[in-house]
């Protein structure tokens, strides 16, 4: 069993190429449906097509649905973000603070969160912390 990887593999390339061709084929069929007269389509044997109303209404519905999904996605993350006076905006279970042993003057310290007292000390030039 192979592990999941973002590297290009032949199956993924084939699926991408088929989707690429399918997109262009679908757009070509949409344009044929939009611009070719119904009498000509019926003469070659295509007798069932959706109403012409859906030529405009379908893309508009898809666009509105996309905008609603984006709005709900944004609203969900705004709702799940803690308020500014919450302690979770200062530290949570994923916070990583530096221990004094990790800090050396000769190298750059590892990536970590800055404690709030150090931020206040730098911002407000307070020496009594």
TrEMBL record:
Q: What does this protein do?
A: Part of the complex catalyzing the transfer of N-acetylglucosamine from UDP-N-acetylglucosamine to phosphatidylinositol, the first step of GPI biosynthesis.
* Membrane-spanning parts: 12-33, 53-74
Q: Does the keyword Membrane apply?
A: yes
Q: What main location does UniProt list? A: membrane
- What family does the Swiss-Prot or TrEMBL record give for this protein? Belongs to the PIGP family.
Any Pfam family matching the protein? PIG-P
The record's Gene Ontology cellular component field reads:
endoplasmic reticulum; membrane
List the molecular function annotations (GO) for this entry: phosphatidylinositol N-acetylglucosaminyltransferase activity
Q: Report how it sits in the membrane.
A: Multi-pass membrane protein
Protein name according to UniProt: Phosphatidylinositol N-acetylglucosaminyltransferase subunit P
Quote the subcellular location field of this record.
Membrane
Q: Where is the PIG-P domain?
A: 12-124
GO biological process: what's one of them?
A: GPI anchor biosynthetic process
What does the record give as its pathway?
Glycolipid biosynthesis; glycosylphosphatidylinositol-anchor biosynthesis
Q: Which terms are listed as keywords in the entry?
A: GPI-anchor biosynthesis, Membrane, Transferase, Transmembrane, Transmembrane helix
């Amino acid at each position: 069993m192979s592990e999941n990887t973002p590297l290009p593999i032949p199956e993924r390339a084939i699926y991408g190429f088929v989707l690429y061709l399918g997109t262009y084929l679908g757009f070509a069929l949409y344009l044929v449906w939009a611009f070719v007269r119904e009498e000509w389509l019926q003469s070659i044997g295509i007798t069932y097509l959706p109403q012409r109303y859906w030529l405009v209404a379908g893309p508009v519905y898809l666009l509105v649905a996309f905008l609603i999904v984006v709005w709900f996605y944004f609203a969900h993350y705004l709702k799940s973000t803690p308020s500014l006076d919450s302690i979770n905006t200062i530290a949570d279970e994923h916070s990583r603070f530096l221990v004094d042993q990790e800090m050396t003057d000769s190298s750059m310290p590892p990536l970590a969160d800055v404690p709030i007292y150090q931020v206040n000390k730098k911002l407000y030039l307070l020496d009594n912390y």
